Amino acid sequence: MKNVTGPLDAVGKNALNDAMTLDQRIADSFARQSMLATLGAELDRVGAGEVIISAPILESSRQQHGVAHAALTFALGDTAAGYSALTLLPADTEVMTAEIKINLLAPGRGQRLRATGRVLKPGRRLVVVAADVHAIDGETETLVAVLQGTMVPVAPAVTPA
User: Fold this and answer.
1) Where does the pLDDT of residue 36 fall: very low under 50, low under 70, confident under 90, or very high at 90 and above?
2) Number of helices (H) and strands (E), helices first, in the chain?
């Protein structure tokens, strides 16, 4: 992870966590996402209500036209949006996607995709989120997708021993 900014609690309910705790909480959760590791994804920035994730456009992540597969675009956007919601929730809470919509705007040409997730409307039962996904080709950035969805706060999963 490259950078952490902003205080945790934009909602004003979780003064226990500071930015470093938030950073570690998101990083620990991100590290447990095996699919994102397979895609080479990195957690670039964590802030209150905003998370940025990027991944290389690997040969194994391209579709038949040689550009980033929409599944890569969706995975990054959904994950960035979900973690943006998690930054505003109490430490004993996780999130799951209830629904999310994607508009694919342009082919993902370049070396890397970067997804910026942000909270549009925080809440205790539902968190409305959005994400923009850009393709990075050298010095050129192209908006390739926008996502909007709803995250649901849930109790953390209990992992079997």
Assistant:
1) very high
2) 3, 7
